[in-house]
Design goal:
Layout lengths: L4 E6 L2 E5 L6 H16 L5 E6 L3 E6 L11 H21 L3 H15 L9 E6 L8 H8 L3 H9 L2 E7 L6 E4 L14 E4 L3 E5 L2 E5 L3 E3 L2 E5 L20 E7 L1 H8 L2
Parallel strand pairs: 5-13
Antiparallel strand pairs: 1-2, 2-4, 3-4, 6-7, 6-13, 7-10, 8-11, 9-10, 9-12
């Protein structure tokens, strides 16, 4: 796997680049680095912002302990040390890790489900909500049922949150569902619209313009500004879609 590149990004940020490929292995490494930094913050650390294959680390240049020629150089040196220590800690075997590994193997052999803390997102794939199903069916040479089955049978990783508050970029789709964005974006999409484009799927949390292909809608609120933590999902989460009927969707929205 490509080594991490540490790039001065601005006067108060450093970009950690993990390559230019979108896959779960790279994102897992990125999230390990993110967690190590947040658990062992350097002086002046503000926050991390993960993306597909990069991690931006923001800091306050006034409070950073300068031990190199530049502030960014000082931050990069400390980040390298934090990540290296975190990797050594992760690779070090422990009785707890061995016990968990044994339990996972035993569960697999016995055919028992393994707890992966996967978040289930209910989706109504009715054509009233899946407004692009007809076009996609023609374009992909798949029936409605095949599109729905291919979409909901996979477990997806939240690679990043962006575009609008709470919008999750999820990957990756089954290759049979790879498709282009719409040539003409819609001006306004309903909140909860579940969409696909390229090798990704996502959910529009708010009423916004959008150019992805809509295949359904979830009644869940992905962004609720009334809550202390307004976001339902975060980078690193895994989710799975569950098909619900139109009546179940309507009943849920009446709650």
């Amino acid at each position: 796997m490509q080594e991490i590149q540490f790039i001065p990004f601005s006067e108060n940020a450093v970009l950690l680049s993990f390559g230019n490929t979108i896959n779960e292995a790279i994102h897992e490494k990125l999230m390990h680095a993110k967690n190590s930094i947040e658990k062992n913050p350097f002086k002046g650390f503000v926050e991390t912002v993960p993306a597909y294959n990069s991690l931006t680390v923001f800091y306050n240049p006034v409070t950073v302990e300068k031990d190199a020629e530049t502030i960014s150089g000082s931050v990069i040196g400390q980040l390298k040390q934090i990540i290296q220590t975190g990797e050594q800690s992760t690779n070090k075997p422990s009785f707890a890790n061995l016990s968990n590994e044994f339990l996972t193997q035993t569960q697999a052999l016995e055919g028992k489900p393994i707890d992966k803390s996967t978040i289930t997102i209910p989706v109504c794939y009715d054509e009233e909500y899946g407004i692009d199903l007809q076009d996609l069916s023609t374009q992909l040479n798949l029936s409605f049922e095949e599109i729905i089955q291919l979409h909901k049978e996979k477990t997806y990783r939240v690679f990043m949150i962006g575009f609008t508050p709470g919008f999750p970029y999820l990957g990756t789709l089954d290759e049979k569902l790879f498709t282009k964005r719409k040539a003409q974006p819609r001006v306004n999409l309903p909140p909860g619209s579940v969409a696909i484009a390229g090798n990704q799927t996502g959910i529009y949390p708010l009423s916004t313009p959008g150019g992805w292909n809509i295949i359904g809608q979830t009644p869940l609120l992905l962004f609720d500004q009334q809550k202390e933590n307004p976001f339902l999902l975060k980078a690193g989460d895994t989710i799975q879609f569950k098909a619900i009927t139109k009546k179940e969707f309507e009943d849920y929205t009446k709650r």
